[in-house]
Each structure stands twice: as C-alpha cells, then as structure tokens.
Specification:
Mean pLDDT: 84
Number of strands: 2
Low-confidence stretches: none
Number of helices: 7
Strand order of the largest sheet: 1-2
Distance between the termini: 58 Å
Strand content: under 5%
Radius of gyration: 24 Å
Helix content: 55-70%
Order of helices and strands: HEHEHHHHH
Length: 161
C-alpha cells in the first residue's frame, strides 16, 4: 500500500491499519490481536479510533522507538569527549568504506588474524545501538586498522614516486 503524499492524520492511520488488519485476517485466516505504532499524537489517535471500532485489538507504543529516543536524548547531553570519540569512530569507518584497497586489506588481515571475515558496522544516527556495535568492532580490530593505515601510508608516501 503506497501512502506517499498522504497526510498521516489519526483518521488516516486508523483507516489504513483497519484495512490492513482486515486484509491480513481474511487472506491469512488469522486473528490480529494487537498493533504497534509510533507514540506520536496522530498514531495515538489512530489506535484510539481502532479500539472504538475493534475493541478486541490492543494498541501499543513502539517500545524500541521510545528507547531509541531516550538514548538519543542521553547521547546529546553526553560529555564532549564522548561526542568527539563517536565522531572519530564514524570518520574512521567512513574512510575505510570509501577506500576499496585499504578496505580489502583490512578484510584480508582480519580474516587471517581472527579467522573470520569482517563486515564493517557503520553507525546510523537513528539506530542508537549501531554506534555501540561500531565502537565495539573498532576496539576488537584496532590492530588490524592500525596495520592497514600504516601500510596505506607507506604505499602512498614511501614507495610511490
């Protein structure tokens, strides 16, 4: 269902969710018992309107989204050192992801030393746990990163004319 260009009012959300619920129940032969939406006022209204028509369906705020917003607020208030470290981690990951030769070397070195391939985890602003996963990965493969940086620097500055 394409809802591009539609105003996401409570009425629109209620109508769209009810259509989807009815379609799923009819096509799949199941009973929908709950919905999960954002906690915004329009979504809350949509859930309320659904419960008026279908009191058998529970409506919940998305707990993961609420947690994401909470952690985002916490990170905004974090010390400057933390913000600088996360900025540096993001720059480092971005550098490798945009330089194919050093990235290939990093993957090769990681495979050889850790016995498994490496898939870099790029931090995403809207996914708070991606920063944690990215920093953990940087700590785990810090020596491989250093090796690749030094090798790339030596190739560029010492061995090439």
């Amino acid at each position: 269902m394409d809802v591009t260009g539609q105003r996401e009012t409570g009425e629109f959300i209620s109508k769209t969710l009810l259509e989807t619920i009815n379609d799923v129940e009819e096509r799949c032969g199941v009973k929908v018992v709950a919905t999960v939406t954002d906690a915004a006022a329009n979504c809350r209204k949509g859930r309320r309107l659904i419960s008026e028509q279908r009191p058998d369906i529970l409506g919940f705020d998305c707990t993961a989204h609420q947690l994401q917003l909470l952690v985002g607020d916490y990170l905004k208030a974090s010390p400057p050192e933390f913000k600088e470290a996360t900025k540096d981690a993001t720059l480092l990951m971005s550098w490798f992801l945009t330089h194919s030769v050093p990235l290939a070397k990093l993957r090769e070195v990681t495979q050889r030393l850790l016995g498994r391939p490496l898939a870099l985890i790029q931090p995403v602003a809207t996914r708070w746990n991606s920063m944690q996963a990215s920093v953990n990965q940087l700590i785990e493969v810090q020596f491989q990163f250093l090796y690749c940086f030094l090798a790339n620097h030596m190739i560029k500055h010492l061995w090439l004319p």
